[in-house]
Amino acid sequence: MAGSSRQSPNNRVNPAAGVGSGAVRRPRATAAGYAGRHTQMNTGRKLLLVAAILLAVLPTLSGCSSYDSEYFPYAMKGLNVLVYDNKANKEYFGGFVEASYFSRKEALSSCAARAAATARQYHLPDWGYVCCTVTSSSSCVTKVR
């Protein structure tokens, strides 16, 4: 085999490296080597997915948002009823409706009834009302109606 330049499969010359550069290709991966790298890639993707889920869920668990989609605070104690006289631009306090987050729908209808009673009491022909959510830290956190 004189003149034959037989090379081992793990020591092939890289044609992209140029003639005579002496660059050598990396040996081909075996099935075991491929499986190891593939598992590492899947592990990396899994970690990235877990991190993304934690970033999405963590604000709601840590209390960054203490309101639901309708702006009711989860820690509400009740509703303050405020009635407005549109002609005189005056505000009347209609009272407090005790409620929790879980009884908020019933509390809204009670708030409307209390506002109507307040408007009748003060003989208001043109009136409107607002229900403010009450928590331990504020008497009007959000206006929900």
Helix content: 25-40%
Approximately what portion of the residues adopt beta-strand conformation? 15-25%
- Which structural class fits the helix and strand makeup? alpha+beta
Strand elements, count: 3
Shape: rod-shaped
Strand order of the largest sheet: 2-1-3
Q: How far apart, in Å, are the first and last alpha carbons?
A: 95 Å
Q: Count of helical segments?
A: 2
- Number of folding domains? 2
Oligomeric description of these chains: single chain
Average of per-residue pLDDT values: 75
Radius of gyration: 36 Å
Order of helices and strands: HEEHE
Low-confidence stretches: 58-64
The main sheet comes to: 3 strands, antiparallel
Structure characteristics:
single chain, 145 residues, alpha+beta, 2 domains, 3-stranded antiparallel sheet, rod-shaped
If you had to describe this structure to a student in words, what would you say it looks like?
The protein is built from 2 helices and 3 strands; from the N terminus they run H-E-E-H-E. The chain has 145 residues and is of the alpha+beta class. It folds into 2 domains: 48 residues; 57 residues. Strands 2-1-3 form a 3-stranded antiparallel β-sheet, with helices on one face. Strand 1 and strand 2 form a beta hairpin. It is rod-shaped.
